Amino acid sequence: MALKFGFWSEQETQVGQSYARRLHELVDEVRLAEKVGFDCVALSEQHVALGGISSSAPEVVYGYLAAVTSRVKLRSAVTLMPQRINHALRSAERLAVTDILSHGRMEFYGGRANTTIAMRAFNVDPAETLAQMEEGIALLRRSMREDIFTFEGKYYQIPPRQLVPKPVQKPYPVIGIAATSERSHNWAGSEGLAVMSHSIYQGWEIQKKLLTAYRKAWKRDEQGPLDRPRVGIPLFFGIGPTDQKAKEDYAEPLMHYARISTDAYPRLAKLADDYSYMSESVPSMERAGRDWDYLLNQSATTVCGSPDTVIRQIEQYEALGVDEVLLHLDSVPHHKIMEAIDMVGRYVIPHFNDKNNIVRPTEEILDTIRAMRPQNSGSSKKAV
């Protein structure tokens, strides 16, 4: 099965630039991504965020994108599942409506929230986010799968009701979670969910361990849409005509993102037992924010270089058996993102998915032709 490519954005806006303009730029980026061959568009959900990240209402953006795209999958990556941020039944309603408007192109990935600034803004208790995510996804699936449903849990108690309308995709769209702990990988596998896996910059061995845990725990949900495990890995990404140019354009933005995106993790590790595992990754997170070589080559999170280098790097993730890579194209100005999308579509995606349509050197083709001729044909080397 060919490796899938996703365009992943948090709508990051550069200092001095307009949030409003950035949102319209995102639409242009998505349309180009679809045109050049990306398989899905994944939008983050972040609230009252610092540092320029402004994807506060991706569910609104999906409705707009459904009208201006025709092929690419539209994925929440992720919808935050704490009850005070998104009631699970409202998430089911929004998912169903956008699935209808997009003619069956929605995918839903949930997450528990990983910033204290958002949790405090919505009065979310960090000790409850994991349980609320798991219960919320159970409600989400039941409401879409069953005609009239009921639900009795710790956080949700719903008498007999009907989800109106229901999604186009039956029994429901692909559902997954973002997972960084071994526990969440195990849970996703046991529930027959897809997973967007991340090692929190801890490197290749930890990433392999997490994927092994997920696959080992996998158990098909006979009432769900997936018949096999589905693994996606988000990759922080940069590309340029040469390795040096890519480094010049992307090294500092990517290290800066590593610093700001994990800033809350040490605090979270102290606030609730369910987040305590994050303390183990603190040294790796700190190193990723200041050591370019570690970030690029050892953290198992980042891809950056010329098209040829990027291809070799992505092949390492393909060797892990992942089904898709989600390229985080953000942290640089809009024109650089558009250039990156074009280069990925021109050079990278065809290498993995359309190799027989890539122009190769004439001598390479002739050598193959000559090698395929009968050895006793007596024809000259130059003959074709």
Automatic annotation (TrEMBL):
User: Which residues does the UniProt record annotate as the domain Luciferase-like?
Assistant: 4-324
Keywords in alphabetical order, please.
Monooxygenase, Oxidoreductase
Keyword DNA repair in record = no
Q: Has keyword Protease?
A: no
Q: Which Pfam families match?
A: Bac_luciferase (PF00296)
Give the protein name, as stated in the record. Alkanesulfonate monooxygenase SsuD/methylene tetrahydromethanopterin reductase-like flavin-dependent oxidoreductase (Luciferase family)
